[in-house]
Specification:
Number of helices: 11
InterPro entries: AGC-kinase_C, Kinase-like_dom_sf, Prot_kinase_dom, Ser/Thr_kinase_AS
Largest sheet: 9 strands, antiparallel
Enzyme class: transferase
Strand content: 15-25%
Distance between the termini: 37 Å
Organism: Pleurotus ostreatus (Oyster mushroom)
Structural class: alpha+beta
Order of helices and strands: HHEEEEEEEHHEEHHEEEEEEHHHHHEE
Pfam families: Pkinase
Shape: globular
Helix content: 10-25%
Radius of gyration: 22 Å
Biased composition (Low complexity): 459-473
Length: 493
């Protein structure tokens, strides 16, 4: 297959309705406007025929989303670096029922346009602090010109230099500037001042998925609800793997809820990509039904990384091969999916110990144990057990990636092509947006005044941040590789 075939496979297979796409003959009834194949379009034939012709007929994914200003700009070139971040609803577009939003958004490889940055820090009014971390904060902001709400992630250059996290910020920008998927947060602008990097993202009005779970009876979801959200996570991970990235940081705190209740993955600073280009998304055949499926593991080129990752407060999600410092592949994302499913159902993680080292010992040595209550199906137990296989080579998803996980019997009830048209189990509390009712109430210890920040242009001589935990490898502007751009998304007004 040529480059056009690869592009086509990445574009189609990353959609939630990839399962069943490669069926010959008449089109499937599940191929709706929510998927890449529209009911008015014929199913494109299999490669290696002229896939470039098929791309013109494969419709793009449309879904409900928030608005963004449109303007003249050039089309985003393939593999062009641009900005990073969050995704959610703008409060002026609630539809006529729960889980509905009155904006249409197009998801396809040609639906992002990029141009020179059209805004700066003074273009926004700061309304509320939504979250904070060791090198930055996330604010709810209002664009002065349009009165639209956004989430603004502001990273301190000083803190990033001191903590050697520059490369992480650049990685996050690369992913979010090129990603275009309904379950991954959307970036609209990225820019910098002398002291800060800014990611202007879609405001996820539903708040953190973790907080939503904590507010539910028993702090958990029934099995069907857990399966729904697990399916949306699988679709997002599939897309990231097709892009050649390992996510490495799946946990409820990094999942945001759109105002409709659908999930959005966020925080990509721990993601890793191989220095070597990944392979094409290969076609494989499922042993179960013979339907051709896509191997997403080939896209990460079996890349192994040795860096130890894991948030201090959520070390329960770390995979055994990471603890053992054996190096790890994209299979770590399937381990974390197993932990997430277990936590959604049982309101705790399966290997949690009294201390960090106890947890690590349990992860390495103990089999997963299922509690007597709540009752779950044998298929659910089998799926979680296989995802939590301590041997990464036999773990569910380790051979062909998301297609292997999608084919597990626990996901039989999932209509992958209708995920975005299905009412989610959790509908966030009604909000006018500004009240941020689905977020914790936080106070700023040190106030940042956007009006005082001057938009800056990166030096033409970028420095090299160096490897994770290392020092810059050359002099120059360490943030020269950060792109100040504005992105426009088709289907948003």
């Amino acid at each position: 297959m040529g480059a056009s075939a690869t592009k086509f496979l990445r574009r189609v297979a990353s959609a939630p309705n990839a399962k069943g796409f490669f069926t010959s003959g008449s089109r499937s009834a599940s191929n709706t406007k929510n998927g890449y194949l529209a009911p008015t379009d014929p199913v494109p034939p299999l490669p290696p025929m002229a896939v470039s012709d098929c791309m013109d007929h494969a419709d793009s994914m449309e879904t409900m989303s928030s608005g963004s200003s449109r303007g003249r700009s050039s089309r985003l070139p393939r593999n062009t670096l641009a900005p990073s971040s969050l995704k959610a609803g703008i409060p002026n577009g609630l539809g006529d029922g729960p889980g509905k939003v009155a904006f249409r958004r197009t998801y396809s490889s040609n639906s992002i346009k990029v141009g020179q940055v059209e805004v700066g820090p003074s273009s926004f009014s700061k309304l509320k602090l939504l979250g904070k971390g060791d090198v930055g904060r996330v604010y709810l902001v209002k664009e002065k010109k349009t009165s639209k709400l956004f989430a603004m992630k502001v990273l301190s250059k000083k803190e990033m230099i001191e903590r050697k996290k520059i490369k992480r910020a650049l990685t996050e920008q690369e992913i979010l500037a090129t990603a275009n998927h309904p379950f991954i947060v959307t970036l609209y602008h990225s820019f910098q001042s002398d002291g800060y990097l800014y990611f202007c993202m879609e405001y996820c009005m539903g708040g953190e998925f973790f907080r939503a779970l904590q507010s539910r009876p028993g702090k958990c979801l029934p099995e069907d609800g857990s399966r729904f959200y697990a399916a949306e996570v699988v679709a997002a991970l599939e897309y990231l793997h097709l892009m050649g990235f390992i996510y490495r940081d799946l946990k409820p705190e990094n999942i945001l809820l759109h105002q409709s209740g659908h999930i959005m993955l966020s925080d990509f600073d721990l993601a890793k990509q191989s220095n070597e280009p990944g392979g094409m998304p290969a076609l494989i055949h499922s042993d179960a039904n013979g339907v051709p499926l896509i191997d997403t593991m080939s896209c990460t080129a079996n890349f192994r990384t040795n860096s130890f990752v894991g948030t201090e407060g959520r070390h329960q999600y770390i995979a055994p091969e990471v603890i053992n410092a054996q190096g790890h592949t994209a299979a770590v994302d399937w381990w974390t999916l197993g932990i997430l499913i277990y936590e959604m159902i049982y309101a705790t993680t399966p290997f949690k110990g009294q201390e960090r080292n106890d947890t690590f010992a349990n992860i390495r040595l103990l089999p997963v144990h299922f509690r007597d209550s709540p009752k779950v199906s044998s298929a659910c137990k089998d799926c979680v057990t296989r995802l939590l296989d301590k041997n990464e080579k036999t773990r569910l998803g380790s051979k062909s990636g998301a297609s292997e996980v999608k084919q597990h019997k626990w996901f039989t009830k999932i209509n992958w092509g209708l995920l975005r048209n299905t009412q989610p189990p959790i509908i966030p509390s009604s909000s006018n947006g500004v009240d941020a009712v689905n977020f914790r109430q936080l106070k700023e210890s040190r106030s940042l005044h956007f009006e005082d920040q001057i938009l800056s242009v990166a030096s033409s001589t970028p420095g090299t941040p160096g490897e994770e935990g290392g020092s810059p490898t050359q002099t120059g502007d360490l943030f020269g590789a950060f792109s100040s751009v504005t992105l426009h998304h088709d289907g948003e007004s």
